[in-house]
Amino acid sequence: MLKNLDMSYIFRIFIYIKMITMTKKTKQIIYGIEITKPFSTEMYNHNDTVATEMKANLKTILDKALKEENEDLIRKIILSFTGYGYGEGYDLQDIYNDGIYTIHNAANWQMHEEYSYLCFENLVPRTRFMMVGFDWEKHDYSYCTDKDLSPASPEIVPSGLNKE
Hints:
- The termini are far apart.
- This protein is about 50% helix and about 0% strand.
- The chain has 5 helices and 2 strands, in the order H-E-E-H-H-H-H.
- About 25% of the residues are buried.
- With about 160 residues, the protein is mainly alpha-helical.
- It is elongated.
- It has a domain at about 30-120.
- The protein has helices spanning about 5-20, 40-65, 70-80, 90-105, 110-120; strands at about 30, 35.
């Protein structure tokens, strides 16, 4: 029986079965922001806001550690962003300055991964929101839930209230 069917007919049946079995991907919405690839403007804005909070937290912790001369804490935090340790002979102020510069210039993906690790180690506080659109983190470093809305969410009006 299959010998009598032409190949175009078999191909059309195959395509029809394939279309039936394909499921539509559901939209993922976190903090009121639709997650898209490539990243949307709302995702970039949200991640930039979270990165600003992370950098402020890190600067506060490093300033306090420098004041208390907590060299171990400074080295541990700076190592996670620079990727290298400092040997003997480096002044604590030089290590701090290099670390602050590196953190200030860190990309959002690096902030997401490293801050997650540092939060897991209880070296930094949780942030209000997590960054969105990244596939991996060591630890959930936010204290909000997916139901909370980001200021970058299109569901927020300029006053900061929900559109409802």
